[in-house]
Amino acid sequence: MPPEQLNNDKLVRGDLGRLEQTGLDMTMKKRSGSFFQKDQHIVHAKSEAEGIEVLSLKDALEKYSWMNKYYWNAVKKDKDRYTRFVARQKDEKGMVIIAHEGAKAIYPIQACLYLAGGAVQHVHNIIIAEKGAELHFISGCASATTEQRGAHYGITECYIKEDAKVTSTMIHNWGKKINVFPRTAAVVGDRATYMSNYICLQPVGRINMYPTAYLTGEDSVGRFSSITVAHEGAHLDIGSRAILSGKGASAELLTRAITTGGTTISRGHIRGETEGTRGHIECKGLILEDGLIHAIPEIEGCVTGTELSHEAAVGKIASQEIEYLMARGLDEETATSTIIRGFLDVKIKGLPDILQKQIDTAIDAAETGF
């Protein structure tokens, strides 16, 4: 069923807007393909781009025997209780995106994971970009407005071959009592690039995630960008990690975190294992209401030829900044909102315009809550 046929009678009233805030485009005018999973039911999987396939996990494993070498490889089955839970399921759900050699998508692939009524939604995704391919995808995750409690376990394995590029933008719009446990790893080859952008600005119960990029290729690049808001009662334990084992590999980990009464633990870890590697971690936190932001940056150098650095800062909005804007005609509320918007307005290096606009839209949607 095409996404444009997922009209209001297929969704709980009011949830279409929530899904659109995560990047779902029902018209498909600026999408190269789509995947839609509601609870444990795959509604739709299709690609519109030449050289790029969008399949269910089951169909991909049946179609290609070589898929087994990518299945539970970057993420191990026994990593923790959540991976073991997903691995035990007899009928794993999830998507597989394959960008064949040289294929380049003009518009992003969209993936929507929608929790409507199930207690636990589990997915296992595999992303493969072959030599010279270029792939962008938006993962929009949301729960129904009527869903009081629930959980999402998401496994994602990314494999980026030489000279390929993958950009992943994940936008979460869960509920106050939804607990989310993504487990993601990427293996990045020679001169390949992996960009991961994570946006969570709406209320949620608990999130625990620590995606890892294994930069095994020469001159490979990994960039993680996270923009989060911890509302009252939320507990966000998030971070990212880059292992620099390829000669000349580089990584950048960027975080913008706000608390309006919730808890954010922001982790970052870069390990330089080879000569000529470079890495930097930056975490900035803003406390709007009494809550907690705990930044834990780690840099680990194993050889003389690696260059690693980190910086972290947590504080409140400076009164002189508000006074400066009020002196130019803004009222206090508008001045405060302007400062917060500027804090979150991170322009991500190398991000396609259409994905940057989607991030800006998510920030705009959340701005009234500040």
Keywords:
single chain, 370 residues, alpha/beta, 10-stranded mixed sheet, globular
Structure, described:
By secondary structure, the protein is α/β, with parallel strands linked by helices. The protein folds into two domains: 3-317, no CATH class; 318-370, no CATH class. The chain is built from six helices and 20 strands. The protein has helices at residues 15-21, 57-63, 81-88, 319-326, 332-344, 353-367; strands at 33-38, 41-47, 52-56, 95-99, 109-115, 120-129, 134-143, 150-160, 165-173, 178-188, 193-200, 206-208, 212-215, 221-231, 235-244, 250-260, 263-272, 278-289, 292-301, 307-315. The strands form two sheets. Strands 2-1-5-7-9-11-14-16-18-20 form a ten-stranded mixed beta sheet, with helices on one face. A hairpin with a 2-residue loop joins strand 1 and strand 2. Helix 4 crosses helix 5. The chain is globular. Mean pLDDT is 87; it is low at 1-5.
